[in-house]
Structure formats: C-alpha cells, structure tokens
Design a protein that fits this description.
This protein is of the alpha/beta class and about 230 residues long. The protein has two domains: about 150 residues, 3-Layer(aba) Sandwich (Alpha/beta knot), CATH 3.40.1280.10; about 60 residues, Trp Operon Repressor, Chain A (Orthogonal Bundle). About 25% of the residues lie in helices and about 20% in strands. A five-stranded parallel sheet has the order 2-1-6-5-7. The protein has a two-stranded antiparallel sheet with strand order 3-4. It is elongated, with a radius of gyration of 22 Å.
C-alpha cells in the first residue's frame, strides 16, 4: 500500500510514522508513506497557501490553486483508489471503513487547516470525506495520523500476530471483552477462573459473552444495526 498525505505541517506527522507499529510497517516495506508540503506548490515567494474567505468571517481558508497543483502532480503517474479529505463534517471513521480502506492500494489524504479548504477542491477532487469525531482540531494532520494507524495495522504482516486485529474492539460490532495478565491475584481481585482452565471452547464462549455484555452496557447503538451476534 502507498499513502500520500498533503499537509502544511509535515513536521507534525514525522513522529507518528517514526515509531512503533507504523515505523515497523514502513521498514518492512509493507506500506509507503509520503508527506507533501503544500507550501512547495505555492505560486509566490512567500509560500502563501491560505487566504481570507469570500463573504467575510473569521478564519483563513486553504486556497484552491496550490492544492490543485499538488493533486495534478501526484495523479500524473498514479491512480488513487480514494482521495480523502479529513474534515469534521465528513463520515465518522469506524472499523468497517478502516477494513475497507486497508484493502486498497493507493490512498491520498488531504489535511485541512484553519477554516478548511476551498470547496471547489472538494467538488473536483475528493472522493471521500472522513471525520474522526464530533470536535474541531487545528488541522487535519492528527486526524490523518489516526486514519493511517487504523488502516495500516490491518495490513497483512504488520502485526506480529495477525489474528490480533480480528479480535479488536468494533470488529463484528462488538467491544472487546476484559483482558488479564499476570499476576493471577492483584489487590484482592482474581483472574476469572475460566481463563485459567485451558479449555479453549469455554474461554471463547466466555469472551463472546463478555464482549456482548460490555457492548450492551456501554454501546447499545452498535447492537441496533441488525447485526446482533446473538441473533445469528
């Protein structure tokens, strides 16, 4: 997979891709991530990429021309499966969306800034708009990092145990069950006996029951989709 990210703050994205799972994925050649500084596509010596919005109002807007030049350059020799714009008014990111995007080959992510980007870029170029929550950030860089993390960890070979991602929270519309590690007793609290039984069938049944219980208590909306696992 290849992911290209257009940003006015490329330094802000160096850290997420320079450590832990994402770094290992890049080092192993399982994903390529390229950061493109939008200011490199500015048309004046001041590297200006933003301007006041028509109609007045507070806040600057990323201009159409630098973004269009960057997009034209990137799409010359590559077809992108999705051109994604990170925006609070986009479709909320969820696990199903991450699963779908992980099966693509080429993704391009546009990070907004200030009041966002000129609407004409959204109309002409963007194929999918994604939000990571009902709140506003200073720019789309942190949202892009969240999206990339959610997608990259699903690629084959990224996780040491590939079955781990299949049991994550939100897979199958369920929250993950409680998990325990050593010691067996901690401050008077014991590890549930079934997890020490060695009976894989009973352990799996317990985990499924706990996952369903936790989802029903904390996120009942996930069970209102018609995909209730207890109804299969």
């Amino acid at each position: 997979m290849r992911i290209d990210i257009i940003t006015v703050l490329p330094d802000l994205l160096q850290s997420p891709f320079g450590a832990s799972i994402l770094k290992r994925a890049i080092d192993r050649g399982l994903v390529e991530v390229y950061l493109h500084n939008l200011r490199d596509y500015a048309s004046n010596k001041y590297k200006q990429v933003d301007d006041y919005q028509f109609g007045g109002g507070a806040g600057m807007v990323l201009m159409a021309e630098p973004l269009d030049r960057c997009l034209q350059e990137l799409t010359k020799g590559r077809k992108y499966d999705e051109i994604i714009y990170m925006t609070p008014d986009g479709t909320p990111l969820n696990q199903r969306m991450a699963n779908q995007l992980s099966m693509q080959q080429n993704l391009l992510v546009i990070c907004g800034h200030y009041k966002g980007i000129d609407q004409r870029i959204r109309d002409l170029w963007v194929t999918r708009e994604i939000s990571i929550g009902d709140y506003v950030l200073s720019g789309g860089e942190l949202g892009a990092a969240v999206l990339c993390d959610a997608v990259i960890r699903l690629l084959p070979g990224v996780l040491n145990d590939e079955t781990s991602a299949l049991t994550d929270t939100f897979q199958d519309n369920l929250l993950a069950p409680p998990v325990y590690t050593r010691p067996r007793e901690f401050r008077g609290l014991q590890v549930p006996g079934v997890l020490l039984s060695g009976d894989s069938g009973k352990i799996e049944a317990w985990r499924e029951e706990q996952a369903y219980k936790r989802t029903r208590e904390r996120r009942p909306d996930l069970l209102d989709t018609g995909d209730d696992p207890k109804m299969d």
